[in-house]
Amino acid sequence: MATGAMPWDRPAPEREGLPSAWSLFPEDLAALGCPGSALETFRRLHRPWTWEAGAPVLGPAIRRWLEGVADLALPGIVERQPSEDGATKLALQLADGKRIEAVHMPRRVRNPRVTYCVSSQVGCAMGCTFCATGSMGILRNLQPGEILGQVLAMMAVLGPTRGHELTLVFMGMGEPLHNLEHLHRAIRLLCHPAGLGLGKGRITVSTSGLVSGIEKLATLEPRPLLALSLNATSDEARSRTMPVNRVWNLARLRQALDAWGPRRGEKFTFEYVLIAGENDTEDDAARLADWLGDLRSAHNLNLIPLNEHEASALRAPDETRVQQFAGWLKARGCFVTVRRSRGRDIQGACGQLVKPVARG
């Protein structure tokens, strides 16, 4: 099939209007004529722990100037659904009325961390049959300021209070690499030392296998960690559940990973959604281990029992089969974890995020 026939090759509708204040670097603020220190203005915008009443503290002259050249609106948190496991699913409304979802997941470990699962698009073009977001289709890309704005809005309301306590996973709504230009600008902003100052190793971008995007992201700096949603071990099965495989098959995908060339300290994460009767046999485990090859012991393979939702008739295997599948992989030298998705009780787990357009 020609790539031009696939929906992710067509540009998503974009938001128009003034540039977002949250998408501007200090040099952009200076070029626009910032009447004070552009670096200090950037710092005040991007550090929620310095805000008051949910807004950055700006002098009157700076605020008047900024309101004339940029959009100061942040995504607004309009719904919160707490989970029994401590996670919170949030719906955020954008300036045009469209809504996205994100998940706030505190982790009570020796050095407390909070993980945000954030979105990169409104909807998704990839059409994976097991994912609720795909049922929306693609509505539009998020702008860099909207991507970053999710993070700032959640930090201001739910914490954490500093960037070094935060980990981000782009595993929310959308295919991040379908919106790579805006995504990477947001990553650069997130890593800026005068802002949140996130380390690139604290940001993971998950893709369904958009090879063109993987190859481009590999060349960019800062380069985040990469997660790959694999979910099948033959081209026939993967093409059935993940249309992206009809363009970039498993062999081509493996070539892209080899070309990525993990650096010291970098690990791939392979996500394998277990679907009863679809991809959970011993033969599947053997093919998966063979496909991973020399990556099987040094990188992370996450088995994710399907998070069921009403948009799909697919079902998760029972716990016995999940453990059996993990055992088959471990016997073949794979480093395996079974991921217990947080927020399942509130439809906030992997593959469950979906939001209709808000109606006025």
- Note the run of SSEs as H and E: HHHEEEEEEHEHEHEHHEHEHE
Count of distinct strands: 12
CATH superfamily of the largest domain: Aldolase class I
Task: State the strand order across the main sheet.
Answer: 1-2-3-4-7-8-9-10-11-12
- Provide mean pLDDT, rounded: 90
CATH topology of the largest domain: TIM Barrel
User: Gyration radius, to the nearest Å?
Assistant: 21 Å
Task: Give me the CATH architecture of the largest domain, please.
Answer: Alpha-Beta Barrel
* Quaternary structure annotation: single chain
List the uncertain runs. Answer: none
**Helix content range:** 25-40%
Number of helices: 10
List keywords for this structure.
single chain; 360 residues; alpha/beta; TIM Barrel; 10-stranded mixed β-sheet; two-stranded antiparallel ribbon; 10 helices; 28% helix; elongated
Short description:
The protein is an alpha/beta fold and 360 residues long. It is built from ten helices and twelve strands.
Describe this structure in words.
It contains 10 helices and 12 strands. The chain has 360 residues and is an alpha/beta fold. The chain folds into 2 domains: 54 residues, no CATH class; 273 residues, Aldolase class I (TIM Barrel). The strands form 2 sheets. The chain has a 10-stranded mixed sheet, covered by helices on one side. The longest helix is centred in the middle third of the chain and has 15 residues. The chain is elongated, with a radius of gyration of 21 Å.
